[in-house]
Predict the 3D structure of the following.
Amino acid sequence: MDLQLGTYDEEESAAKAYDLAALKCFGTSTQTNFPVTEYEKDLEMMEKKTKEDYLDILRRKSDRFSRGASKYRGVARHHRNRWEARIGNVRGKKSLYIGTFSTEEEAARAYDVVAIKNKGTNAATNFDKSTYTRSMTPGSNSACDVPSHAEDQPLPPTTTTSSNHIN
């Protein structure tokens, strides 16, 4: 299994990220760089996440995770202290503009909703996918799922026939 967990400035940070990924993928009997007892809190949180979600969390904690000025995927600072959400590789476009938001978290949640709608349940998100159950319900209206405080027009409905994507 070959996983990319990001780039770390400190060797110890990289080793801990490796340990956490190994623990999630292979369990507590796997060989780690540090004693498993050092990861007790992490193991509790790890149990509540899918493997993919937990590995995304580890990647976002890396020192050089590509995120612009925001700590969230798909979010960048916009002028006048607002936050812009954008997603790449959607509907044949290089980038799809989602909108601007008052807070970084609102923009990140809007990104997550659009990512799930367009890329399916395997989409990389900023927050736990279980918080978006309405967005994952087939037939839900995408304009209603994007937070209403987005200042821009809602996205047109997604049309896809793949069974692993949200329509």
The longest strand covers residues 82-90.
